[in-house]
Design brief:
The chain is built from 9 helices and 17 strands. It has 429 residues and is α/β, with parallel strands linked by helices. It folds into 3 domains: 25-90, no CATH class; 95-298, 3-Layer(aba) Sandwich (Rossmann fold), CATH 3.40.50.1820; 308-427, no CATH class. The strands form 3 sheets. It has an 8-stranded mixed sheet with strand order 1-2-4-3-5-6-7-8, with helices on both faces. α3 crosses α5. It is globular and about 65 Å long.
Length: 429
């Protein structure tokens, strides 16, 4: 997604007059880089130089400096994005390139101290007239009611059969999640997607490829087409289907997915939490018996730093997934990366990080290189980190925290719970 925020900064990167406040740094974490970042953030966003071009952006940081720098940049991004997007949230329409997504939402319950839940609920319809999809959207707005949270129903940007799993939907939903964090104080670790009929088609497709932004997902009366469940490893996934819903073999395929999910969980007991309910007496309409999916999802909270990741890229590829990232060359449809992290729970810090961290790349198909991203809530960044390649070869490196990497993760996606000051890139044999 092209961000206006980033463009604004880059445009003014050549303004020498504003560069005078930024001094050069050596490779020492003792340099007061946080002061320089504070000076930079205090300048007008329309005239300040590009942050990534400043010497202090690449200077090594201590743990405390990384914490301070993350807080400064999160605050800065929040301010700029709030100013840029206030109108689209107020008007309830998001425009990306030549497409637009209308939405409506209702707010339920008392807001928890940790922030609200967000439920994105996709309507049915599909390849039909706009008025039919409009009616389906209006129905979806009132279809479910969570006990607490922001219940948001978007209107699909197109009227095609695959209206909820075209590539642009990922960008729109990321934008919705970001905006909900900004304007409704949504907790980024409690985001859920759901959908009925054609909306269910979307859940089958989107939940695996956007799982790193979700806590759980609920599929109602849809068809998966060519979707793979592999990416669901770290979220909750519930499926509701009428036992008599024979069109497109929806009922038969739902039973197949029930078995697929059970097999995945049997082989990986810590992952693939799921619940599949076949409502035997119903056809395509389940008389709202599927509403139990809402409280079921609400029990789940996203872990942005899971100890194991299974990343399968569909035709709509992504540059990052949890703490893994790939460059453009390695963004290949049909590729798969499986990585697990082990270590010793730290006793010396207040956070839940691991010492002696080891990342084992268990599988890497169609991928030549992968980047492992880290923060101090995940691993001890002051100790060497071991990466074990599929061949068994070990690579040992000490990660380095920098402001540039913090900025990079936030510019990709405004997710305050997924900020990474350090990374290691390894070539795969």
């Amino acid at each position: 997604m092209i961000r206006t925020y980033l463009i604004t900064i880059i445009i003014f990167s050549g303004l020498v007059s504003n560069n005078q406040s930024v001094r050069a740094f050596n490779d020492s974490p003792n340099a007061d880089v946080v002061k320089e970042l504070t000076l930079w953030a205090g300048q007008s966003e329309t005239t300040r130089p590009s942050l990534i071009e400043q010497d202090f952006a690449n200077a090594p940081l201590s743990q405390d400096q990384a914490k301070e720098a993350s807080a400064i940049l999160i605050k800065d991004f929040r301010k700029q994005l709030t100013n840029q997007r206030k109108k689209e949230w107020t008007e309830k329409v998001i425009r990306l390139d030549e497409l637009e997504m209308k939405f409506d939402y209702r707010v339920f319950g008392k807001k928890p101290k940790t922030g609200r839940r967000l439920f994105i609920s996709m309507h049915g319809g599909g390849g039909t007239a706009a008025r039919v999809n409009d009616q389906q959207w209006r129905n979806q707005i009132g279809l479910y009611e969570p006990k607490e949270g922001v219940y948001l129903a978007p209107r699909a940007p197109t009227n095609t059969w695959n209206l909820w799993h075209q590539g642009h939907i990922d960008d729109f939903f990321t934008r919705i999640i970001e905006d909900a964090i900004l304007f409704e104080d949504v907790n980024p670790n409690q985001v859920y997607i759901m959908g009925y009929s054609a909306g269910g088609d979307g859940v089958y497709q989107l939940a695996p490829r956007m799982a790193d932004q979700l806590a759980a997902a609920a599929m109602m009366a849809g068809h998966p087409n060519n979707a793979s469940p592999l990416g669901l490893r770290n979220i909750g996934f519930t499926l509701h289907m009428g036992g008599q819903d024979k069109a497109y073999n929806r009922n038969g395929i739902a039973r197949q997915w029930k078995q697929k999910l059970a097999d995945l969980q049997e082989n990986d007991p810590e992952g693939y939490r799921h619940e599949v309910t076949i409502h035997e007496k119903y056809g395509h309409w389940m008389n709202r018996d599927d509403k139990v999916a809402v409280p079921w999802m609400s029990k789940f909270t996203r872990d942005p730093l899971p100890e194991k990741i299974v990343w399968f890229q569909s035709g709509r590829t992504h540059p990052r997934f949890y703490w893994l990232a790939v460059d453009e060359e390695n963004r290949v449809g049909g590729s798969q990366i499986s990585v697990s992290m082990t270590g010793k729970k730290s006793e010396d810090t207040a956070n839940a990080s691991f010492t002696a961290a080891q990342f084992k790349i268990e599988k890497a198909d169609k991928v030549k290189a992968v980047t492992i991203r880290m923060n101090d809530n995940f691993v001890d960044l002051d100790q060497p980190v071991t990466v074990v390649l599929p061949s068994g070869k070990k690579i040992i490196k000490t990660p380095q925290r920098t402001i540039g990497r913090i900025y990079k993760s936030l510019s990709e996606r405004f997710d305050p719970e997924s900020v990474f000051p350090a990374e290691i890139t390894v070539a795969l044999e």
